[in-house]
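Lab notebook, bench 4. Still working through the backlog of constructs that have no structural model yet. Next entry is a single chain of 96 residues. Request: give me the structure tokens for it.
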Amino acid sequence: MYVTIRKYPVCKNVKEVDRIAMAELLPVLKQVAGFRSYVIVDSGNGTITSIGMFDTKASADAANDRAREVVRKSGMAGLLPNPPDITVGEVLSDAK
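Model written out:
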């Protein structure tokens, strides 16, 4: 299992980005083979972070490509003026 973490250092409206992401990005991510879950976190101080879980690294990388396109084409582009810091890695432990 792989995780992709996208941290946007400047977010002009966290609630609006969350709304748009859930309405426009989530349906796209759910179409990526190996999709498991997706969450958005208000990281504080005008920072927003998304965490996606996928079965393979290829799926996580594909999700990042799709997220980049959705952000660019949607209303999120003006709310997220800086590119995200992206981390993709293999999950070593998963406790529920």
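Notes after review: The mean pLDDT is 95. Residues 11 and 80 are 5 Å apart (CA to CA). Flag for follow-up if needed.
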